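Peptidoglycan recognition protein
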Amino acid sequence: MTRKLQADLPLPRYLWDIAKSTTKAERLSCAAALIVLVVCVLLIVYFTVIAKRTVDSVVDIAPHEWYITREMWLAPEFFNDGDRTQKFDPLRLVIIAHTVSPECTLFVNCAAELRNMQGYFRKNYNYDLPYNFLIGNEGRVYEGRGWNVVGAHTRSYNRCSLGIGFIGDYREGLPQYSKVNEKQLERAKMLLDLGVRVGYLHPNYHVLGAKDLLSSESPGTNLYRAIQNWTHYDHYNHYQNKNCEEILEYFQNKTSTVGSTAIKNNTVNNEQG
């Protein structure tokens, strides 16, 4: 009978009677559990709705559509780097590497990452960023040492090559790894086209991965696979086991041979004519 009467009571009165019949410790435990439940619900709502809206609303604004100079990413002045590549200009060798550093998908984050990277190399190696240029994960080109400056990216080849570092770690098989995207590849090619136009790269330049020249995993599996599809990729690896002077001599001799052959053919044609 008592249970029937309790069941017929309004819900608030029924809950109040139950609460009065519990101990103080039990009531405190229930209150704590309720607070935890409310907090969990609020956190779920925040991270699934509000935080997502905040991320989606972030606008990626940069000083230039794709080419970011040192001044634009607020780089300090050059540090212990004055050597030039003039002796070997226009350069025939482009070396692709990866930075094995955190990814960045916004200009502000990439600029901060470059400054962090620069600080690391200054502190531990006493020089500036090792690469001539870097490619952000959002597809922008960032000026490192720039054109006509000797890099510090690939031992024995720095004086006669252009070093490009893709930000991230592109080694497949890791729990998390970077995946090169089309915009990164497109912007890298735009940079190389610019290098040819301004005269720092030879029109017949070759592209290699760092692993083609040294014992290294750089530029990582999927980035290495991507550059092998480029028109300028050197499948014959003309540069392995050569120093910069030998590379220069090799191409000078090759040019002389081609020139001599052309002159000889013209002479023969004229005589026959």
